[in-house]
Design a protein that fits this description.
- The structure is a single chain.
- By secondary structure, this protein is mainly β.
- The chain has one domain: Lipocalin, CATH 2.40.128.20.
- It has one helix and ten strands; from the N terminus they run αββββββββββ.
- It has a ten-stranded antiparallel β-barrel.
- The protein is globular, with a radius of gyration of 21 Å.
- 18% of the residues are buried.
Amino acid sequence: MNSRIITLFIFSSFVLNIANAQYDYEASKDYPFGKANPEAPEQVKDFQPLIGECNCSSVSRKQDGSWAEPVDMIWRWKYIMNGFAVQDETLKADGKHSGSIRQFIADSSKWYVHYYSSISKSTTLPTWEGNKTEDGKIILYRDQKAPNGMEGYYRITFYDMSKSGYKWIGDWVDKTEQIVYPTWKIDCKRR
């Protein structure tokens, strides 16, 4: 009888250790925003300077082309899927919250960013794609026509990334990127 209990205890401990090892890179007490999994593509660390929380100021264009008043927000970033992907969420003072799930697909050597929002609900999530540049910016694109019907992209750029914070800008650009029209800016400081 005692050998059965000991065997059951050893087997249970073994199974529990295997199960816990599957999630070594998820959020924990020691790593509240998770960690990059060493088995993931190296690019999963592109967003490392953003992991955590920042206090941010978000400003966007109004219909008349002028800039609206800034909106305070918290931008929270974490590793998900046991360190194989990145998720972010924004909590805005105006109640317009949003977030993204970011996966690097090695076969295409690109980031794919799936965006969702409390304001513009959708049955399919819009997707941006792009990469980190040699000068340290992360630039993502999505096809989008201008109000006049001109073909172009909505371009998102993360830049000035450091331990103290980062900046973000959303621009409409034509296909050659010669015409650039900023529509949204965010400036973030580490909490």
